[in-house]
Write a structure and sequence with these properties.
- By secondary structure, the chain is of the alpha+beta class.
- It has 2 domains: 8-45, no CATH class; 52-142, no CATH class.
- The protein has helices at residues 38-45, 50-62, 67-71, 87-90, 105-116, 135-142; strands at residues 80-83, 100-103, 120-122, 128-130.
- Strands 1-2 form a two-stranded antiparallel sheet.
- The longest helix is centred in the middle third of the chain and has 13 residues, at 50-62.
- The protein is elongated, with a radius of gyration of 20 Å.
- It starts with 37 loop residues before the first helix and ends with a helix.
Length: 143
Amino acid sequence: MPSVPKPNRCSHLGCHEPRFRHYAYCETHGGTAIRMSKKRVEQMDMYNNRTWERHRTTQLYKQPLCQACLTNGVVRSATTIDHVFPWSGIGKEYFYHNIFQSLCTECHSVKTALEQKGIIRHYTDPVKDYTINDAMAVINNML
């Protein structure tokens, strides 16, 4: 089946330069490169491997529904695997050695906003809130 080609060139008439991701134009014609810090690039690389993909698939198989929505009586498919305790705050070794929960995109955004305020939420029955200081004790107790 034919598909629509993805535009990867600048939209300015006559320009053949590559466009920036999420923009229609090259840098000369108004596009802007999205620059991430070296730390952020390293963090994103943790998710781009076969081991994580298998882990993610297994988690979605075990918990296909959003845990946060279920606590509110709503049934919605999960799309994101969440580290209950953000591994970037407690160490790289906790990327796989963590507690995981399946969430939809909206609930994951809410949880991330709570984490920026220092609240770490685990959607269980009942919902439990932790701080980053609780991470080691809770992880070792639950795993």
